[in-house]
Design goal:
By secondary structure, the chain is mainly beta. It has one helix at 2-12; strands spanning 18-23, 28-36, 42-51, 59-68, 73-78. A five-stranded antiparallel β-sheet has the order 4-3-2-1-5. A hairpin with a 5-residue loop joins strand 2 (28-36) and strand 3.
Length: 100
């Protein structure tokens, strides 16, 4: 249970911050962390998915308010929303599957 309380206290500092979530089903969701529940399901607002391709520029698909179940979260991290990336010039292989 100690791991759960450490995780919730860390996530509390990220409330209202821009975060990127890599899911276990190979998606990257970026948005504002609005909150989470007692089982650490994430509530992300103003979100969009970044879709990577080795032959095309990064595509951003608007999702809006999005809930991500804890079991689907592989990695979560805060993003500096003031950093500017030229996603039109970035090409990358799609994300690999997450090994369990």
């Amino acid at each position: 249970m100690a791991g759960l309380s450490a995780t919730t206290s860390t996530l509390e500092t990220d409330i209202n911050q821009t975060v990127a979530v890599i899911t276990s089903y190979r998606r990257m969701i970026v948005g504002t962390l609005n909150g989470f529940d007692q089982t650490i399901n994430l509530i992300v607002d103003e979100s969009y998915e970044r879709v990577f391709s080795s032959s095309q520029e990064v595509e951003q698909m608007v999702l809006g308010l999005y809930i991500i179940r804890r079991v689907n979260v592989a990695v979560i991290g805060e993003i500096d929303k003031h950093s500017v990336f030229d996603l039109g010039n970035i090409q990358a292989k799609p994300l690999n599957s997450v090994a369990h």
